Amino acid sequence: MNNTKKVGILRGGSINTEQSLHLGKKLATLLSDSVTVVDLLIDTDGQLFMGGKPLIPVMVDRFVDCIVDVTFNIPTTLVATFRGLGIPTMAPSDVECALFANRALMQKYLTPYEVNFPYAVTTHIPLGHSVPAVVSAIHKTLPPPWRVWDGANWHSTKTNVELHTMLDNAPRDTDLYVQERPLGHRVEVLVLRNFRNHDLYISIAVTTTGKLVPLSVHYKDLIHKELKILMNLFAHTDSVLASYIVKEGKAPMLSSLDRVHLIDDHAVVSAIREQSGITDEEVRRWYVK
Q: Model-level pTM?
Protein backbone atom coordinates (compact mmCIF):
# COMPACT_ATOMS: atom_id res chain seq x y z
CA MET A 1 0.00 0.00 0.00
CA ASN A 2 1.42 3.39 -1.02
CA ASN A 3 1.20 5.94 1.79
CA THR A 4 3.22 8.65 -0.03
CA LYS A 5 1.66 12.07 0.26
CA LYS A 6 0.11 13.27 -3.00
CA VAL A 7 0.83 16.93 -3.71
CA GLY A 8 -0.98 18.66 -6.56
CA ILE A 9 0.95 21.46 -8.27
CA LEU A 10 -1.58 23.84 -9.80
CA ARG A 11 -0.14 25.86 -12.67
CA GLY A 12 -1.15 27.74 -15.81
CA GLY A 13 -4.02 30.23 -15.79
CA SER A 14 -4.30 33.53 -17.62
CA ILE A 15 -1.81 35.63 -15.58
CA ASN A 16 1.95 35.12 -16.17
CA THR A 17 1.22 31.74 -17.71
CA GLU A 18 4.78 30.93 -18.82
CA GLN A 19 6.22 31.89 -15.44
CA SER A 20 3.61 29.73 -13.72
CA LEU A 21 4.37 26.70 -15.89
CA HIS A 22 8.12 27.11 -15.34
CA LEU A 23 7.85 27.52 -11.56
CA GLY A 24 5.51 24.54 -11.32
CA LYS A 25 8.00 22.38 -13.21
CA LYS A 26 10.82 23.39 -10.84
CA LEU A 27 8.71 22.66 -7.78
CA ALA A 28 7.77 19.25 -9.19
CA THR A 29 11.47 18.42 -9.53
CA LEU A 30 12.16 19.67 -6.01
CA LEU A 31 9.37 17.64 -4.40
CA SER A 32 9.49 14.48 -6.50
CA ASP A 33 11.89 12.58 -4.21
CA SER A 34 9.71 12.88 -1.11
CA VAL A 35 6.10 12.99 -2.38
CA THR A 36 3.94 11.92 -5.30
CA VAL A 37 3.52 14.97 -7.53
CA VAL A 38 0.20 15.41 -9.34
CA ASP A 39 0.36 17.95 -12.18
CA LEU A 40 -2.80 20.10 -12.35
CA LEU A 41 -3.25 22.65 -15.12
CA ILE A 42 -5.71 25.51 -15.62
CA ASP A 43 -6.24 26.91 -19.11
CA THR A 44 -7.01 30.57 -19.83
CA ASP A 45 -10.73 29.88 -19.52
CA GLY A 46 -10.38 28.41 -16.04
CA GLN A 47 -10.83 24.74 -17.05
CA LEU A 48 -8.97 22.32 -14.76
CA PHE A 49 -6.94 19.46 -16.30
CA MET A 50 -5.08 16.47 -14.89
CA GLY A 51 -2.91 14.28 -17.09
CA GLY A 52 -4.07 16.24 -20.12
CA LYS A 53 -7.73 15.41 -19.50
CA PRO A 54 -10.44 17.74 -18.13
CA LEU A 55 -11.07 17.23 -14.41
CA ILE A 56 -14.20 18.20 -12.52
CA PRO A 57 -12.92 20.31 -9.58
CA VAL A 58 -15.12 18.54 -6.99
CA MET A 59 -13.27 15.29 -7.79
CA VAL A 60 -9.77 16.64 -7.12
CA ASP A 61 -9.71 15.36 -3.52
CA ARG A 62 -9.62 11.81 -4.92
CA PHE A 63 -6.16 12.46 -6.36
CA VAL A 64 -4.35 14.90 -4.01
CA ASP A 65 -3.81 15.48 -0.29
CA CYS A 66 -2.82 19.14 -0.68
CA ILE A 67 -2.23 21.69 -3.44
CA VAL A 68 0.60 24.13 -4.20
CA ASP A 69 -0.88 27.02 -6.22
CA VAL A 70 1.54 28.72 -8.63
CA THR A 71 -1.09 30.25 -10.95
CA PHE A 72 -0.68 33.74 -9.36
CA ASN A 73 -4.43 34.24 -9.94
CA ILE A 74 -6.39 31.16 -8.92
CA PRO A 75 -10.12 31.47 -9.84
CA THR A 76 -12.28 32.22 -6.81
CA THR A 77 -14.55 29.30 -7.74
CA LEU A 78 -11.63 26.90 -7.38
CA VAL A 79 -10.60 28.48 -4.07
CA ALA A 80 -14.12 27.87 -2.76
CA THR A 81 -14.14 24.30 -4.11
CA PHE A 82 -10.78 23.38 -2.55
CA ARG A 83 -11.81 24.95 0.75
CA GLY A 84 -15.10 23.04 0.70
CA LEU A 85 -13.25 19.78 0.06
CA GLY A 86 -10.90 20.52 2.97
CA ILE A 87 -7.79 20.47 0.74
CA PRO A 88 -4.89 22.53 2.21
CA THR A 89 -3.66 25.00 -0.42
CA MET A 90 -0.43 26.99 -0.18
CA ALA A 91 1.12 29.74 -2.27
CA PRO A 92 4.73 29.93 -3.58
CA SER A 93 5.71 32.21 -0.70
CA ASP A 94 4.94 29.38 1.73
CA VAL A 95 7.09 27.01 -0.29
CA GLU A 96 9.94 29.53 -0.34
CA CYS A 97 9.75 29.94 3.43
CA ALA A 98 10.07 26.18 3.85
CA LEU A 99 13.05 26.17 1.51
CA PHE A 100 14.82 28.98 3.37
CA ALA A 101 14.26 27.21 6.69
CA ASN A 102 15.69 23.90 5.50
CA ARG A 103 19.42 24.20 4.79
CA ALA A 104 19.77 20.71 3.34
CA LEU A 105 16.79 21.22 1.03
CA MET A 106 18.11 24.62 -0.01
CA GLN A 107 21.50 23.17 -0.92
CA LYS A 108 19.97 20.28 -2.87
CA TYR A 109 17.68 22.64 -4.77
CA LEU A 110 20.13 25.45 -5.54
CA THR A 111 23.35 23.55 -6.34
CA PRO A 112 22.18 22.75 -9.92
CA TYR A 113 21.96 26.52 -10.48
CA GLU A 114 25.71 26.82 -9.77
CA VAL A 115 25.25 28.45 -6.38
CA ASN A 116 28.39 27.66 -4.40
CA PHE A 117 27.90 26.04 -0.96
CA PRO A 118 30.22 24.67 1.72
CA TYR A 119 30.24 20.88 1.64
CA ALA A 120 27.62 19.30 3.88
CA VAL A 121 25.90 16.03 4.73
CA THR A 122 22.54 15.19 6.25
CA THR A 123 22.53 12.54 8.96
CA HIS A 124 20.54 11.37 11.96
CA ILE A 125 21.11 9.08 14.94
CA PRO A 126 18.67 6.16 14.88
CA LEU A 127 17.59 4.62 18.18
CA GLY A 128 20.27 2.29 19.46
CA HIS A 129 22.77 3.40 16.81
CA SER A 130 26.41 4.09 17.65
CA VAL A 131 27.25 7.79 17.83
CA PRO A 132 31.02 7.13 17.32
CA ALA A 133 30.22 5.36 14.05
CA VAL A 134 28.26 8.41 12.83
CA VAL A 135 31.07 10.75 13.92
CA SER A 136 33.57 8.58 12.06
CA ALA A 137 31.44 8.64 8.90
CA ILE A 138 31.13 12.45 9.06
CA HIS A 139 34.88 12.83 9.66
CA LYS A 140 35.65 10.74 6.57
CA THR A 141 33.43 13.02 4.49
CA LEU A 142 33.98 16.49 5.96
CA PRO A 143 37.13 17.81 7.64
CA PRO A 144 36.74 19.68 10.97
CA PRO A 145 35.65 22.17 12.15
CA TRP A 146 31.92 21.64 11.59
CA ARG A 147 28.62 23.46 11.97
CA VAL A 148 25.59 21.33 12.86
CA TRP A 149 22.01 22.47 12.21
CA ASP A 150 19.47 20.59 14.37
CA GLY A 151 16.40 22.20 12.83
CA ALA A 152 16.40 25.13 15.22
CA ASN A 153 19.99 26.20 16.00
CA TRP A 154 23.53 26.05 14.70
CA HIS A 155 26.12 24.26 16.88
CA SER A 156 29.84 24.79 16.22
CA THR A 157 32.23 21.91 16.86
CA LYS A 158 36.00 21.89 16.39
CA THR A 159 37.00 18.31 17.23
CA ASN A 160 35.65 14.76 17.06
CA VAL A 161 35.07 14.90 20.83
CA GLU A 162 32.93 18.05 20.54
CA LEU A 163 31.00 16.58 17.62
CA HIS A 164 30.45 13.35 19.56
CA THR A 165 29.10 15.33 22.56
CA MET A 166 26.79 17.41 20.37
CA LEU A 167 25.39 14.34 18.56
CA ASP A 168 25.11 12.41 21.83
CA ASN A 169 22.75 15.11 23.13
CA ALA A 170 20.79 15.42 19.87
CA PRO A 171 17.30 13.90 19.65
CA ARG A 172 17.22 10.50 17.96
CA ASP A 173 15.62 9.95 14.57
CA THR A 174 15.86 13.69 13.80
CA ASP A 175 17.71 14.81 10.67
CA LEU A 176 20.86 16.82 11.37
CA TYR A 177 22.58 18.99 8.78
CA VAL A 178 26.38 18.90 9.20
CA GLN A 179 28.35 21.52 7.26
CA GLU A 180 32.05 22.17 6.98
CA ARG A 181 33.09 25.50 8.46
CA PRO A 182 35.49 27.07 5.98
CA LEU A 183 37.90 29.76 7.16
CA GLY A 184 37.31 33.31 5.97
CA HIS A 185 35.13 36.37 6.56
CA ARG A 186 31.43 35.77 7.14
CA VAL A 187 29.66 38.60 5.36
CA GLU A 188 26.01 39.56 4.99
CA VAL A 189 24.45 40.97 1.84
CA LEU A 190 20.94 42.43 1.75
CA VAL A 191 18.86 42.21 -1.45
CA LEU A 192 15.78 44.41 -1.99
CA ARG A 193 13.46 44.59 -4.96
CA ASN A 194 12.47 47.96 -6.49
CA PHE A 195 14.72 50.04 -4.26
CA ARG A 196 16.45 53.33 -5.22
CA ASN A 197 15.38 53.01 -8.86
CA HIS A 198 16.88 49.52 -9.10
CA ASP A 199 14.79 46.49 -10.03
CA LEU A 200 17.15 44.54 -7.77
CA TYR A 201 19.17 46.44 -5.17
CA ILE A 202 22.15 44.51 -3.73
CA SER A 203 23.80 46.14 -0.73
CA ILE A 204 27.50 46.23 0.04
CA ALA A 205 28.86 43.26 2.00
CA VAL A 206 29.53 43.77 5.70
CA THR A 207 30.64 41.43 8.46
CA THR A 208 28.26 40.49 11.28
CA THR A 209 29.82 43.32 13.32
CA GLY A 210 28.88 45.85 10.64
CA LYS A 211 32.41 46.40 9.35
CA LEU A 212 33.01 46.76 5.64
CA VAL A 213 34.78 43.92 3.87
CA PRO A 214 37.16 44.94 1.07
CA LEU A 215 36.02 42.54 -1.65
CA SER A 216 37.65 42.59 -5.06
CA VAL A 217 35.50 43.28 -8.12
CA HIS A 218 35.84 39.58 -9.00
CA TYR A 219 34.24 38.45 -5.72
CA LYS A 220 31.54 41.12 -5.89
CA ASP A 221 30.61 39.98 -9.39
CA LEU A 222 30.40 36.32 -8.28
CA ILE A 223 28.15 37.18 -5.31
CA HIS A 224 25.93 39.49 -7.37
CA LYS A 225 25.58 36.84 -10.08
CA GLU A 226 24.44 34.26 -7.51
CA LEU A 227 22.02 36.65 -5.82
CA LYS A 228 20.38 37.51 -9.14
CA ILE A 229 19.90 33.79 -9.80
CA LEU A 230 18.35 33.33 -6.36
CA MET A 231 15.94 36.23 -6.73
CA ASN A 232 14.89 34.99 -10.17
CA LEU A 233 14.07 31.61 -8.63
CA PHE A 234 12.18 33.14 -5.70
CA ALA A 235 9.84 35.31 -7.71
CA HIS A 236 7.61 36.19 -4.75
CA THR A 237 10.41 37.14 -2.37
CA ASP A 238 10.84 40.88 -1.82
CA SER A 239 13.89 40.84 0.44
CA VAL A 240 16.64 38.37 1.30
CA LEU A 241 19.56 38.40 3.70
CA ALA A 242 22.35 36.19 2.32
CA SER A 243 25.33 35.07 4.40
CA TYR A 244 28.57 34.29 2.55
CA ILE A 245 31.98 32.89 3.52
CA VAL A 246 34.68 34.88 1.69
CA LYS A 247 38.39 34.03 1.64
CA GLU A 248 41.05 35.31 -0.70
CA GLY A 249 41.69 32.85 -3.52
CA LYS A 250 38.45 30.91 -2.88
CA ALA A 251 35.07 31.37 -4.51
CA PRO A 252 32.50 32.92 -2.12
CA MET A 253 30.27 30.25 -0.54
CA LEU A 254 26.63 30.80 0.37
CA SER A 255 26.25 29.79 4.02
CA SER A 256 22.65 30.74 4.74
CA LEU A 257 19.67 32.50 3.23
CA ASP A 258 16.86 34.19 5.14
CA ARG A 259 13.76 36.15 4.26
CA VAL A 260 13.64 39.51 6.01
CA HIS A 261 10.26 41.10 6.59
CA LEU A 262 10.56 43.85 9.18
CA ILE A 263 13.03 46.59 9.89
CA ASP A 264 15.37 45.69 12.78
CA ASP A 265 14.38 42.03 12.41
CA HIS A 266 18.07 41.25 12.33
CA ALA A 267 20.96 43.25 13.79
CA VAL A 268 22.88 42.78 10.55
CA VAL A 269 20.13 44.50 8.57
CA SER A 270 20.61 47.62 10.66
CA ALA A 271 24.37 47.47 10.13
CA ILE A 272 23.97 47.08 6.37
CA ARG A 273 21.48 49.94 6.19
CA GLU A 274 23.85 52.17 8.15
CA GLN A 275 26.80 51.36 5.90
CA SER A 276 24.68 51.74 2.75
CA GLY A 277 23.10 55.02 3.84
CA ILE A 278 19.58 53.56 3.67
CA THR A 279 17.27 55.57 5.91
CA ASP A 280 14.47 54.15 8.04
CA GLU A 281 11.95 56.10 5.98
CA GLU A 282 13.24 54.55 2.75
CA VAL A 283 13.05 51.09 4.27
CA ARG A 284 9.50 51.70 5.54
CA ARG A 285 8.41 52.87 2.11
CA TRP A 286 9.93 50.02 0.08
CA TYR A 287 10.57 47.20 2.43
CA VAL A 288 8.24 46.87 5.41
CA LYS A 289 5.01 44.98 4.82
A: 0.67
